[in-house]
Design a protein that fits this description.
The protein is α/β, with parallel strands linked by helices and 181 residues long. It has helices spanning 2-28, 40-47, 68-82, 107-119, 143-148, 175-180; strands at 56-60, 92-97, 124-126, 154-158, 161-165. Helix 1 crosses helix 3 (68-82).
Length: 181
């Protein structure tokens, strides 16, 4: 009989811990995105003026905004990203999200991602992933990505480094991308 009682207590504790871990995500859904949204080109232009001799950046991917468990996990990631410069050893210039910023590319997913981007204290540059234009909803595919993130092919400099971002969501580059390179 004591074993059953202890098992019930442990089960209740387990459930309470899971509910507690989801609380930040609940408040997230009541937050409104701030407009206008900073797009890739604007962020890249802002990096051109950096003068420190050293820099670093954070790379992440598959944040999959739009699905409740994904948003919960991404919010935990955001809190870790925001603490990353706490020792002030090397300044962090930006964060690169290298694809799948949304779960399936719906506008509601992009709105969630816009709120997540605002919560990151560093500028965020986005590359398109294979899930980011799954549902074009008659808008022509990448219209939502361009609306919420910006262009899909671009380059920028930060100090002595040159970054190139290319759209390879289909697993290949096209002729116009090669010509641009």
């Amino acid at each position: 009989m004591k074993k059953i009682h202890i098992a019930r207590i442990l089960f209740v504790i387990f459930i309470l811990l899971n509910v507690y871990s989801l609380l930040p995500a609940v408040s997230f859904y009541f937050k409104k995105p701030i407009l206008p949204i900073r797009l890739n080109r604007d962020i890249a232009r802002g990096l051109a003026g950096n003068k420190e001799p050293y820099f670093s950046f954070i790379v992440t991917s598959d944040t999959g905004s739009g699905l409740f468990p994904n948003n919960s996990a991404t919010l935990k990631l955001v809190s870790r990203i925001n603490r990353e410069d706490r020792f002030h050893k090397t300044p962090i210039d930006f964060v690169v999200n290298v694809g799948d910023v949304t779960f399936r590319g719906k506008e509601a997913h992009y709105k969630d991602y816009a709120k997540i981007k605002e919560m990151i204290k560093f500028p965020v540059i986005d590359a398109i992933g294979n899930h980011d234009d799954d549902f074009d909803q008659g808008l022509g595919g990448m219209v939502l990505f361009k609306k919420y993130c910006g262009v899909t092919n671009f380059s920028f400099m930060d100090r002595n480094s040159y970054f190139i971002v290319l759209d390879d969501k289909d697993g290949d580059f096209n002729e116009s991308q090669f010509a641009w390179l």
